Amino acid sequence: MGDYENRGRGGRGYNNRKRRYKDDDDFDRRPQRRRYEEPPVIKIRKQLLSIAETLRKPEDEIRSISQALIENYDDEELRNNVLDLILQLTVEQPFKIPFVAAVILTSNLQNPDIAKEALIRAASDARGYLEGGSWRQFKLVLRFLGCLQGLFEGDGVFTVLEELFSRAVDLQTASSDDGLGLELVKIILLTIPYTLSSSALGFEHHAASLLEKTDIITSTPHALEALVDPYPDEEKPREPVSVLTLLQRQLQTEAGRDWELACIPRVWKLPLGEDGQDPLATATKHAFPDITIPKSVNPGPKPLFPEVFFSVYADQEVETVPPSTEIASSLLRDALIDTINVLDFNRNATAKFLIDIDCYFSPDTFIKRATPFDRLKEVAGDKSTWKPEDVAVDAVFSQLFQLPTPEHKLVYYHSVLTEACKIAPAAIAPSLGRAIRFLYRNVDSMDMELSFRFLDWFSHHLSNFGFTWKWTEWSDDVELPDTHPKKAFIIGALEKEIRLSFAQRIRGTLPEPYQALIAEEKEKDAPDFKYNFDETPFALEGKEVMALLRKKAPEEEIQAVLNLIQEKAVAMGVTDSLIPSTDAYVTSICAIGSKSLSHVLSCIERCKERLLAIGPQSETARRQIITSVMDYWKDQPGVGVNIIDKLLNYTILTPMSVIEWALINHNDQRRNLAKSHIYEMVSTTVFKVTNRVRQIVAARDQEGLPEDQINMLNETLIREREEQKIMFRVIEDSLTNYARESEDEMEHNSGPNVDRKLLQKWPERWLKVFRRKLAVEEAVIGDAVKVQLKTEI
Amino acid sequence: MPAAARSTVDRLDLPSAYFLGRSRKRKYDRDRDDRDDREGSPEAAPEDPLKDATTLYVGNLSFYTTEEQIHELFAKCGEIKRLIMGLDRYGKTPCGFCFVEYYTHQDALDCMKYIGGTKLDERIIRTDLDPGFQEGRQYGRGKSGGQVRDEYRDEYDPGRGGFGRAIAEERAKEEREYGLNK
């Protein structure tokens, strides 16, 4: 609603005059402002913008807006403004589509020009979205047209749906791992309910015949579906079902019930005329606007992956969200997801929509807001027990736990939940509590990437609400071995909380059994410098190195001490004498930089040359750099992980060295796989590599690049892709090795051993994640390479 | 496609009134001489200094919040290129603000949208797009070395050194004098 209302008031002059005026005659308490009647354009805009935002009857608002529009339709500015706004609301606030469509339907009774003009705009928008591959926006404009189905001569929106379907068939026959064809089918299926609940009559047959045709496409599982299953373990809370398959089944069920479609509001309904006729039935009809689906469709900017239905409230004793057999489940979810993802530029507005969801659907869809869960059992008979806050929050979680990646950064979904919780704590907080319990209960079978997202969100969320959580309910799990996924979650979440706050503060929020999880050492200002203890090998030299570094002694002096360490080490029979000297050097850098990240960075900057020279001499010594950093920061591994990341940027470390360190070169290897900071370290490293390849592709695909630059970038791309491949192969090989070792162990060591059994799970969980990452990169970059080939031909 | 310059709800990734106020003032001073032209081309604005901004000013931090904590939160919007703590001009201790620089403009915008106005170290923090850090800007501009807002603040804020310094000074003086009279 931004700046429109402010326009024409003349910025600073206004304020100045006011202030001066006030100083002169302050005794006059009555504001001397001129009575200000808002021009109709602003009034209608305001009404439209807030349409349906309250639980009051929206029908009256619709009629009043429509009346004002008819009365002022001659005003060209107003006309353009209002019609543009209606189409903008269609794509920005999808909840409101049935309501703004009703404004057009009602206006059409008295002035057919209004609908005619709206249709021209809708068609032109739709064509633009088609061209740009903006499939969400296209779907929403189609929904708007579906709601207007009663306006059209002939088959109306069904002509486009049929055309979309034949395009989907083309795409599906061309490639089995096609994602776009599925998206088109989803658009068709989601347009049908809005069309059939519009004022138009007699299209059931059209819908049924479409449904028959889409059945084959929606019931064939997609090749990549198993990769995006949120619960890949055998003991999963439920079988994965694709969103599209569900949607098809739900519509078939609904067709059997005469398309009841109870949750969609029928706000277009008007009182019958004096003759007992529905006035809409005799209103002027219009030709369906010209929207043709091009022969080759634009897939849009992002590759599409199959979606698996996700819900945190699906298995409760009382239904708080629509069961996945109900069409309401998909309709609510789809409208919510669009709202959430479209409005990422204002999380407060998103949160408000989530809280107000019951305003935008039929009045009996939900139970009263903030009804406590325990109270639901008392609800009589066939009345709805769906909690609006559960339905809303569930949709946010479906995005937060979307594989391979959601549309926006994860932190956006964090922030939406935070705001919703701030606006309506009494309603949202208990829902979040039940969601957290569900997620925690099933964390054992959850995809590992998702369990990491879970702890990242959980700790971040708590940091916004005073770190309060009923830890006591999980107290028993503190006894579990660290390799148990639940215990690993607890440890990881506490670690993250501490990183956002500090150990002492977090300790204060924890009940007794958890106290042991936070080591005393975490509360120290700086970790101990191991060379201060005489029993440490090379204690003397270590101290010397640090002292020299601290006083910024000349390089030769430092080199002399490092040489001494190496000589001694050789005498002691150490094979790679560079290891102890590197240890002393890097540990000293950590200690000097222990005060803050910028301290350690400036120290690294100073020592850069020597650090850079280590890797090329010995890969083991390069990995020692990581060992030294992580050992020094063993009680605050988050700091260590951060430093490793910076060392990668300096190319002191290579991605491969980090991966080998984490997955091969460690004493207590497999136990490491259960530690969330190790996963964090590996996944950020992998991201660095994959992101670089993507950036090269993006740079190459820029328009107007000279030939030689394209060639150069293509060469780099080939090289970097090769490295990426090797990286993924090393990950794959070392993890399969672990998995095999575990199996061998299981066979040879008889007798029950819980710990061993748990250990065995981790390599599999890791493999799942990194195989998916590889498949995604192949899909993304593979497509990009293909696209280029096509244009060359 | 429609030119959706203005959204149906406000955007959170726009510069604050503070920044706009300053740049408007600058523009006003510049335009003073040729004010007649202004009517003709109201938005023929010169290059927007925030067009590609990758830096954010972060305010309302506790004096005790560490770089690591800031890093932990702000890295959720993308890799951080540089983090500069705001320091007391005399004591060289943190004085409640910092600059966070990302590698991309998009990360900075996302940070405005998703992190500005949320809590860090249990305080609501403020973010503002910034044209870029320049040496010297890391120091407080208040009389006693900290931020200006901490000079005259009359409510007690334990995260930012108690009362405003000027006010604390006044109180201490009163107390001393009261002791002397006794």
Automatic annotation (TrEMBL), chain A:
Residues 45-257 form the MIF4G domain. It comes from Trichoglossum hirsutum. Residues 21-36 have a biased composition (Basic and acidic residues). Residues 1-36 are annotated as: Disordered. SMART domains: MIF4G (SM00543). One of its GO terms (cellular component) is nuclear cap binding complex. It is found in: Nucleus. It holds the Pfam family MIF4G_like. Belongs to the NCBP1 family. SUPFAM superfamilies: ARM repeat. InterPro entries: ARM-type_fold, CBP80, MIF4G-like_typ-1, MIF4G-like_typ-2, MIF4G-like_typ-3. Signal peptide: none annotated. Gene3D superfamilies: 1.25.40.180. Keywords: mRNA processing, mRNA splicing, Nucleus. The keyword Nucleus applies. One of its GO terms (biological process) is nuclear-transcribed mRNA catabolic process, nonsense-mediated decay. The keyword Transmembrane helix does not apply. This is MIF4G domain-containing protein.
UniProtKB/TrEMBL annotation, chain B:
The gene is CBP20. One of its GO terms (cellular component) is nucleus. GO terms for molecular function: RNA cap binding. Residues 54-132 form the RRM domain. Its main location: nucleus. Pfam families: RRM_1 (PF00076). Residues 25-51, 136-167 are annotated as: Disordered. This is Nuclear cap-binding protein subunit 2. It is found in: Nucleus. Keywords: mRNA processing, mRNA splicing, Nucleus, RNA-binding. Belongs to the RRM NCBP2 family. InterPro entries: NCBP2, NCBP2_RRM, Nucleotide-bd_a/b_plait_sf, RBD_domain_sf, RRM_dom. Gene3D superfamilies: 3.30.70.330. One of its GO terms (biological process) is mRNA cis splicing, via spliceosome. Residues 28-41, 148-158 have a biased composition (Basic and acidic residues).
